[in-house]
Predict the structure.
Amino acid sequence: MISKNMEKALNEQIALEGYASFLYLSMASWCDSQGLAGCAQFMHRQSAEERQHMLRIFNYLSEVDGFALTPAIKQPPHEFKSVQAMFEMVYQHEQKVTASINELLSKCHENKDHSTHLFLQWYVQEQREEESLMRNIMDRIRLIGDGPQSLYYIDKEISAVNAAQVKAEAAEGPGEEM
């Protein structure tokens, strides 16, 4: 059985993960409108991944006799100054999610909730990977620069990153069921 304190905190994380899914979906739409098909595909995959993160917590709460709440999701932004600014926003959002996971772990210690602590270890690793991926993408974007053809090369590079991520996920095999 999970404490009401942890249940509330995990429901807040569900909302944060849901917002991330909608944010990335909004970014995918913007990328499509800018002719950045590779970036759009990447953002669609990221959106689906964030939804899975949300569902993982949702299901965990049911397993531990908690109650998962379906969150109301605030409208994310739908216009971005540039692809560079968009990816900077993604990186900042991932840092926010990491901080939230770290807060959840602190609550686990306070509540002596070893089960939830163990459950959240997957998120610790996932956030490390997400932040690293976004830093790598931002580094590549900086290297490409902002010349006249830069959007073409950025889109091509993000498409390659997306293909590599899909291939890596396929190599890992089927994940845990949500």
The domain at 4-171 is CATH 1.20.1260.10 (Ferritin). The CA atoms of residues 4 and 75 lie 28 Å apart.
